[in-house]
């Protein structure tokens, strides 16, 4: 579709999704990018459909050799202002809170696209980031990247033996990691949600304790009331601590696991496309061998085309796999360090807080 | 979270409704029939001296893997699930203790096939025949003690601390030797509750003087207590409520000359309601913490699997470390849940029952007043009879009438004195209760804060250990 290629006129590494606005059921995202020329910024607003438009156009760069070997940056599931329970489950971490994580993920998507040597050249990216008008919202035609058709063929082709050990290993490995990463993300979400529930229960307890305060001059009554008030403050601190812990979990490891899970899926799709091409190639070879003299030339031609396409894909795929491996290790490292540092800070702050409260408590006359 | 205004206590978290306990009718002592079919025997509680401490130890042949780590001697307060048995700590805490009698319940032990809590305690009081000793008691003995005390003392207006409730399901599991976490927890909960019960009994100056209490603490063998069925959890409250109803149904309404009592009674009722509300909230907190334990453990496993499948060595190691950190956190969460439970949930449950007992005292006072009033009206009737006899000139019945009048006059005096005495005792008891309550709550809060602080400090250590692993990923 898009024959012309272009270079991006904006920086890719600092694209920001700064805000999300709700308009009825639709969410609109504000995207800010810095001009390469250094003379200012582009501010555009886009809906999820616009992102999907971009993704479809990226998929359909059929003229680009080996395009099917690209591990495409992953778009999250569509979110609306009032998502159904099913959508919320699909979104996992991204559905928590007020869409901050969702924005982060979209931001990351755009940065990955802009940084990709092949993808960034697609004119659609330039239009998406800089055009003040929303890009065309007509649905791009479905192509090989249509997931629905893949699902049907998957069972047959997924186990297809590879000709290249590098890729066979990668496919096996990817299969395992995709499954584990998804499970880990789901289970971590359970942990975070339990933490949030505890925070709520603590807030309740703190509020209820205030109701136990008894009026009166009696010193024992006053002592009891004072104890209740102080306990209420303690539980307020506990609530704050739990809330921070949950937020830290969400924003670092939660996000990281979600990304890892979706990235593994994206790699899986790429490997599958390659496998499909391999199947096609081997079929073409067999056809060429068995072809009757009349058809022989045509079959040979088809075989050659398939071979070239397959090789192109393999070249790109190998590069992509290496890039992918390095990127994910870096991402996970960054995630784990951030998570650990934030939780460490929260734990230290809480320890200080509890210590202060303990001293205050002990200091009151019994 | 609406407070229920009925008087049945909310169920223990983790166990069945108290009502279930009452299904056994007759005088069957708790679980005795069940013992016959039991092969493993069950647990005894061991009460050791050194402050109000209760530790629970499973007999070694019974314990396999699950449950809290066994402690073999007196340990810290039940809130800390990691018992550390340092004698120094004990001695320090003993010094702080203002009680002259230190009682603790520990070491559930199997003795034959019989459930036998053991009590050990130390005292400096001269009235006891020795300074430190231990005895074995069954749960039904505790109930028997309560029954004796409430019959005697509550008539005087004393607030008798109620013992922990019966639980057929819990005890059955324990007796059958089930090793699962919930039966372990049950044993621990029962042990802690018995200790608090005893501690309250011995810290009450009049109760400590009571010969039944002394017998309970000192004698090697106690006659078996029967008819303790009425004293199960729901049974206890039913008893209180029946008494209240009887009072309310009396035709002569009490003419309260002293508003102090009226005001206090209202306060007690309000407070009971407040505490019930709190209890509901705490129960939900405890259950969420347990949920967190479960989900942390499951998450740890999935991270371990991820770490094992990882190619990159440093990343693999970091992920495996992460899994270990999460395992440690699960342990922390467990302790936290126990802390929440033993420090607050049980405290609230105890006080709700104590307030019920207090209401009982107030009712006793009203009953005393009514008895006095009835006696007065009977006396009046007798006098009228005498007057009639005089007028009807029947000298042979006159003497009898005079005798009866004398008898009733003395009764009236007696009942009036009783009423005054109960009034004074109730006042004293209420003041004492409020003092104890303030102290109790404060003590528990300090314990809790301490536990929270410690767990946060351990958390800091976990994170500090993990950070270099995370940074080392390349």
Automatic annotation (TrEMBL), chain A:
Domain PX residue range list: 1-136
Record carries keyword Protein transport: yes
Keyword field: Protein transport, Transport
GO MF annotation terms: phosphatidylinositol binding
InterPro entries recorded: AH/BAR_dom_sf, PX_dom, PX_dom_sf
GO biological process: protein transport
Family that this chain belongs to: Belongs to the sorting nexin family.
Protein name: PX domain-containing protein
TrEMBL record, chain B:
Protein name: Sorting nexin-2
The protein's role, per its UniProt record: Involved in several stages of intracellular trafficking. Interacts with membranes containing phosphatidylinositol 3-phosphate (PtdIns(3P)) or phosphatidylinositol 3,5-bisphosphate (PtdIns(3,5)P2). Acts in part as component of the retromer membrane-deforming SNX-BAR subcomplex. The SNX-BAR retromer mediates retrograde transport of cargo proteins from endosomes to the trans-Golgi network (TGN) and is involved in endosome-to-plasma membrane transport for cargo protein recycling.
Keywords: Acetylation, Cell projection, Endosome, Lipid-binding, Membrane, Phosphoprotein, Protein transport, Transport
Domain of life: Eukaryota
PANTHER family per record: SORTING NEXIN, SORTING NEXIN-1
GO CC terms of this entry: cytosol; early endosome membrane; lamellipodium
Originating species: Gasterosteus aculeatus aculeatus (three-spined stickleback)
Annotated segments matching region Disordered: 1-26, 59-93
């Amino acid at each position: 579709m898009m024959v012309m290629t272009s270079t991006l006129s904006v920086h890719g590494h600092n694209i920001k999704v700064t805000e999300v606005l709700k308009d009825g059921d639709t969410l609109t995202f504000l995207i800010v990018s810095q001009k390469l020329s250094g003379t200012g910024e582009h501010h555009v607003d886009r809906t999820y459909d616009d992102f999907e438009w971009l993704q479809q156009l990226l998929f359909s760069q059929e003229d680009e050799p080996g395009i099917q070997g690209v591990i495409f940056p992953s778009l999250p599931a569509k979110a609306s202002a009032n998502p159904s329970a099913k959508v919320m489950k699909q979104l996992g971490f991204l559905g928590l809170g007020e869409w901050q994580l969702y924005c982060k993920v979209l931001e990351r998507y755009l940065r990955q696209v802009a940084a990709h040597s092949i993808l960034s050249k697609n004119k659609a990216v330039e239009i998406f980031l800089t055009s003040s008008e929303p890009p065309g919202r007509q649905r791009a035609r479905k192509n090989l990247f249509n997931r629905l058709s893949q699902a049907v063929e998957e069972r047959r082709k997924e186990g297809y033996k590879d000709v290249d050990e590098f890729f066979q290993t990668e496919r096996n490995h990817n299969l395992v990691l995709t499954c584990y990463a998804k499970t880990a993300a789901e289970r971590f979400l359970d942990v975070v949600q339990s933490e949030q529930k505890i925070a709520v229960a603590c807030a309740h307890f703190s509020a209820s304790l205030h109701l136990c305060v008894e009026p009166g001059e009696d010193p024992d009554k006053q002592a009891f009331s004072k104890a209740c008030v102080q306990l209420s403050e303690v539980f307020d601190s506990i609530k704050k601590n739990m809330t921070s812990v949950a937020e830290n979990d969400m924003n670092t490891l939660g996000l990281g696991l979600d990304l890892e899970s979706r990235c593994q899926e994206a790699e899986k799709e790429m490997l599958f496309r390659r496998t499909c091409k391999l199947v096609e190639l081997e079929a073409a070879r067999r056809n060429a061998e068995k072809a009757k003299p009349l058809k022989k030339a045509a079959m040979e031609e088809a075989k050659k085309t398939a071979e070239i396409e397959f090789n192109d894909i393999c070249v790109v795929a190998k590069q992509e796999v290496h890039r992918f491996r390095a990127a994910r290790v870096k991402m996970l490292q960054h995630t784990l360090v951030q998570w650990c540092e934030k939780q460490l800070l929260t734990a230290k702050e809480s320890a200080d807080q509890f210590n202060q409260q303990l001293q205050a408590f002990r200091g009151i006359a019994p | 979270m609406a407070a229920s205004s009925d008087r049945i206590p909310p169920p223990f978290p983790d166990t069945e409704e108290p009502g279930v306990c009452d299904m056994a009718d007759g005088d069957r002592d708790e679980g005795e029939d069940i013992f016959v079919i039991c092969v493993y025997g069950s647990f005894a509680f061991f009460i050791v001296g050194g402050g109000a401490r209760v530790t629970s130890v499973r007999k070694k042949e019974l314990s396999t893997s699950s449950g809290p780590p066994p402690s073999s001697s007196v340990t810290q307060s039940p809130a800390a699930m990691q018992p550390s048995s340092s004698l120094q700590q004990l001695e320090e805490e003993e010094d702080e203790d203002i009680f002259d009698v230190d009682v603790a319940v520990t070491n559930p032990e199997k003795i034959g096939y019989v459930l036998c809590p053991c009590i050990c305690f130390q005292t400096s009081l001269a009235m006891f025949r020795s300074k430190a000793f231990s005895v074995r008691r069954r749960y039904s003995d505790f109930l028997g003690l309560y029954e004796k005390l409430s019959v005697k003392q509550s008539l005087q207006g004393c607030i008798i601390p109620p013992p922990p409730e019966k639980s057929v399901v819990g005890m059955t599991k324990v007796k059958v030797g089930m090793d699962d976490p919930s039966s372990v927890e049950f044993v621990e909960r029962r042990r802690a509750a018995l200790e608090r019960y005893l501690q309250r009994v011995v810290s009450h100056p009049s109760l400590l003087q009571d010969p039944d209490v002394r017998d309970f603490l000192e004698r090697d063998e106690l006659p078996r207590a029967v008819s303790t069925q009425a004293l199960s959890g729901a049974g206890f409250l039913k008893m209180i409520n029946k008494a209240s109803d009887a009072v309310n149904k009396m035709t002569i309404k009490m003419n309260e000359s002293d508003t102090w009592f009226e005001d206090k009674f209202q306060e007690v009722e309000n407070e009971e309601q407040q505490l019930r509300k709190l209890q509901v909230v705490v129960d939900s907190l405890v259950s969420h913490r347990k949920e967190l334990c479960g989900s942390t453990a499951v998450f740890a496993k999935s991270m371990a699997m991820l770490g094992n499948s990882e190619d990159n060595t440093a990343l693999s190691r970091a992920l495996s470390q992460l899994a270990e950190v999460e395992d440690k956190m699960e342990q922390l969460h467990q302790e936290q849940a126990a802390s929440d439970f033993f420090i607050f949930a049980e405290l609230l449950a105890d006080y709700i029952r104590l307030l019920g007992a207090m209401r009982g005292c107030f009712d006793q006072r009203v009953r005393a007043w009514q008895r006095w009033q009835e006696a007065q009206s009977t006396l009046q009737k007798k006098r009228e009879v005498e007057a009639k006899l005089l007028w009807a000139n029947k000298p042979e019945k006159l003497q009898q009438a005079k005798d009866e009048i004398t008898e009733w006059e003395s009764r009236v005096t007696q009942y009036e004195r009783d009423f005054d005495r109960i009034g004074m005792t109730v006042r004293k008891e209420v003041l004492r209760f409020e003092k104890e309550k303030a102290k109790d709550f404060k003590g528990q809060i300090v314990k809790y804060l301490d536990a929270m602080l410690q767990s946060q400090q351990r958390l800091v250590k976990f994170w500090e250990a993990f950070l270099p692993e995370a940074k080392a990923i390349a």
